[in-house]
Amino acid sequence: VFSRSFGLRPRGCWPADGAVSEATLELLESFGFDWVASGEAVLRRSLAAAGAPEPDAATLCSGYRRPQRHAACFFREDRLSDLVGFTYSRQDPEAAAADLVLQLERLAAAMPQPSRQVVTLVMDGQNAWEYYRDNAWGFLRAMYARLGNHPRLRLTTLSRCLQRGVQLRPLERLVAGSWIDGSLGTWIGDARRNRAWSQLCEAKSLFDQVVVEGSLEEGEQTQAEEQLGICEGSDWFWSLGDYDPGESDESFDRLFRRHLGNLYKRLEEAVPEELEPAPPGQSAA
User: Fold this and answer.
1) Are the CB atoms for 179 and 76 separated by under 8 Å?
2) How far is Cα of residue 154 from the mean position of the Cα atoms in its chain?
3) What is the mean pLDDT of residues 74-79?
4) How many other β-carbons are positioned within 10 Å of the β-carbon of residue 122?
């Protein structure tokens, strides 16, 4: 989709909510990505796990690379990203843009080699702009005008940073986690989420078996693959458990089990009883 839309291959990836692990990095690198991005909390936990000191401004605003790996790792600058994502929407657009530039100037002044440093700003995309007036048109216009004309700050992309020699520090460990608290607790850990993962894994094992047996026609297998992709969406697990209680939680639970049931049907297999729709107001155990 990206290649069709922009006419070139994507060179980097921000996985769902910046959730990464060693296996994730290996997988994305195998598809030719040059960089992967995650959250600042993941960097802090990774450095701590390797016995490295608490990061300062210079180490936070650097790229990283795992030993024996090609893909670089960048980490979201949480404080400034959160200002754009959750705070500046309540302020005058010009004043907010001026404050962001001031914050970036202070960061640059604290760095020993600012020309080789990068401040990685990442938005929680579906949440940021809807809270701004006019979808943040005024703020973005003011921000880009100030940064575009700035004598010391440069707008850039992470791919361009790599081309221009941004500092890449060694990363001895990469702890699994996301930008949300540096963990994966948003998707796994409580009983309902764990059960949903078990249901998905059981369906995926059956899918693999059917594919190996070759019992589906090409078109049928394509439809089954698309249905599996729907079931693997990360938002199903986000919406189960204690983050989104009540009617929305039950709706996602019913939809998830319905999509899993449809996958079994695509595979021409019997749908497990526990995936059958529960009555409204009564979610599955």
Assistant:
1) yes
2) 25
3) 96
4) 22
Share of the chain above pLDDT 90, in %: 79
Task: Decide: 152 and 114 in contact? Cβ < 8 Å.
Answer: yes
At 188-245, the pLDDT tens digits run: 998 889 999 999 999 999 999 999 999 999 999 999 999 999 999 888 888 886 655 5
Alpha-carbon torsion (249, 255, 260, 261), positive or negative: positive
- State whether residue 15 is helix, strand or coil: coil
Return d(Cα 5, Cα 84) in angstroms, integer: 27
CA separation for the pair 59, 52 (Å, rounded): 11
What Å distances lie between residue 235 and 19, 112, 140, 252, 255, CA to CA? 13, 41, 28, 9, 12
Q: What tokens appear for 282 in the block?
A: 């009564």
Q: Mean pLDDT throughout 150-173?
A: 95
The strand pair at 35-38 and 168-170 is best described as unpaired
Please answer whether residues 58 and 169 qualify as being in contact, where contact means their C-beta atoms are separated by less than 8 angstroms: no
The angle at the Cα of 192, spanning 191 to 196, to the nearest 5 degrees, equals 115
Query: How far, in Å, CA of 240 to CA of 244, rounded?
Result: 7
Distance CA 73, CA 158 (A): 10
pLDDT tens-digit readout, 125-154: 667 898 999 999 999 999 999 999 999 999
Q: How far apart are CA 36 and CA 265, in angstroms?
A: 36
Please answer whether residues 60 and 111 qualify as being in contact, where contact means their C-beta atoms are separated by less than 8 angstroms. Answer: no
Can you tell me which residue has the tokens 């940021």? 128
Tokens 């005058």, residue? 92
Sheet strand arrangement including 12-13: 12-13, 35-38, 72-75, 63-65, 168-170
Which of 168-172, 228-232, 244-248 has the weakest average pLDDT? 244-248
Q: Are 58 and 41 in contact (CB under 8 A)?
A: no
Tally Cβ neighbours within 10 Å of residue 124: 16
